[in-house]
């Protein structure tokens, strides 16, 4: 009996010993696994850090002229596309962004800040910014890429659209004014009085307004001009147009009027006056029609030009300016409903004069 008891106790001791050994082995294996995983994670983090360190970094200063749907869409697409290029090319773009809000003194300070920061390239969004950057970089030869300059040749930014000839190139939102005027007369062949609404201080509007006057003179149609340099003045100009009895209003790709569009579109709709303008963003903010420029694509191509200059050594002086008139008419269906027009009928009327007719509803900004 004693022998059996001793045997049982011995067996139990061996089992417990084996269990303890197994548990210890399991703990050791777990610890080893965790150690391997930690080491692998550390190595991955180190590799990523080294990759970031190896990536060439470029500093890009972007200045926007004013806060509006058109220009904000351009900036957003520039930044997004540069982010994509970072991943594609293993480079880094350190972006310094600012907005001068149409203040020339603030604009000068922003450019001075970019120069103090030794940016590798400046991006000027809209004509006034591009012209100030050109003047400020003549000696340093810092590359400048402009965006949404309506008439770079007319304002003296470039020697030609094919070969700019200096330290800058970029993208243009040049407007086919006659195409917009054709749409006005397609919608109302018997129109007798047209309003021209713009900011006389906007160089971008100078050529387009001259073209509109020539077109209307050739048609023998009366036109009335009213201008504004801020939202309040533009609103007063609209009041004057209503009193004048104009049947339609034309505006080029004018940033001052673009900024004011949300403040004037209801007045125009209530008066039954159709507002035709030089970009789809006008229609987004309540104009009856916006024509021509695809600002999203313009922003993407501006970023591509930045990359070509910084990564591939392209010379701005010989890099052609890109234009973006895609022949698309964007019609605001909210305004159609307000004025009593059928979008389907409007589309049929415009299709012979456009590449495409699209619809949009009133909103503050593109999603």
3D structure, described in words:
The chain has 367 residues and is an alpha/beta fold. The protein folds into 2 domains: 147 residues, Response regulator (Rossmann fold), CATH 3.40.50.2300; 150 residues, Rossmann fold, CATH 3.40.50. It is 53% helix and 20% strand. It contains 12 helices and 13 strands. The strands form 2 sheets. It has a 7-stranded mixed sheet, with helices on both faces. It has a 6-stranded parallel sheet with strand order 2-1-3-4-5-11, with helices on both faces. Strand 1, helix 2 and strand 2 form a beta-alpha-beta unit. Helix 3 crosses helix 4. The longest helix is centred in the first third of the chain and has 53 residues. The chain is elongated, with a radius of gyration of 31 Å. The N terminus is likely disordered.
Please write out the topology.
Layout: H1 2-54, E1 56-64, H2 69-89, E2 91-99, H3 104-116, E3 121-125, H4 127-136, E4 144-147, E5 168-172, H5 177-187, E6 193-198, H6 203-219, E7 222-227, H7 231-244, E8 248-251, H8 255-271, E9 274-277, H9 280-284, E10 289-293, H10 295-312, E11 322-323, E12 325-332, H11 333-339, H12 343-350, E13 356-360
Helix pairs in contact: 2-10, 3-4, 7-8
């Amino acid at each position: 009996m004693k022998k059996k008891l001793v045997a049982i106790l011995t067996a139990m001791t061996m089992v417990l010993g084996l269990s303890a050994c197994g548990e210890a082995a399991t703990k050791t294996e777990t610890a080893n696994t965790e150690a391997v995983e930690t080491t692998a994670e550390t190595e991955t983090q180190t590799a990523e850090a080294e990759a970031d360190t190896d990536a060439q970094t470029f500093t890009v200063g972007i200045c926007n002229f004013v806060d509006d749907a058109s220009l904000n869409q351009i900036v957003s697409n520039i930044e997004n596309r540069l982010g994509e290029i970072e991943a594609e090319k293993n480079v880094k773009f350190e972006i310094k962004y600012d907005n001068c809000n149409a203040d020339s003194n603030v604009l000068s300070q922003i450019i001075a800040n970019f120069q103090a920061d030794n940016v590798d390239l400046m991006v000027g969004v809209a004509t006034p910014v591009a012209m100030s950057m050109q003047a400020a970089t003549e000696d340093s030869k810092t590359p400048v890429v402009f965006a949404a300059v309506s008439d770079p040749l007319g304002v003296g930014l470039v020697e030609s659209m094919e070969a700019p000839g200096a330290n800058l190139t970029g993208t243009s939102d040049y407007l086919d004014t006659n195409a917009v005027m054709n749409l006005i007369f397609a919608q109302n062949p018997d129109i007798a009085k047209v309003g021209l609404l713009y900011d006389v201080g906007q160089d971008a509007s100078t050529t387009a307004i001259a073209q509109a006057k020539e077109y209307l003179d050739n048609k023998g149609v009366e036109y009335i001009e009213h201008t504004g340099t801020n939202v309040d003045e533009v609103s007063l100009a609209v009041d004057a147009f209503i009193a004048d009895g104009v049947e339609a209003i034309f505006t080029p790709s004018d940033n001052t009027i673009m900024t004011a569009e949300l403040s004037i579109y209801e007045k125009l709709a209530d008066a039954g006056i159709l507002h035709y303008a030089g970009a789809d963003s006008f229609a987004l903010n309540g104009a009856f029609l916006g024509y021509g420029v695809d600002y999203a694509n313009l922003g993407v191509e501006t970023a591509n030009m930045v990359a070509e200059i910084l990564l591939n050594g392209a010379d701005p002086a010989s890099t052609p300016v890109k234009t973006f008139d895609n022949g698309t008419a964007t019609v605001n269906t909210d305004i159609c409903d307000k004025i009593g027009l059928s979008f389907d009928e409007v589309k049929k009327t415009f299709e012979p004069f456009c590449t495409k007719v699209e619809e949009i509803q009133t909103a503050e900004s593109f999603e």
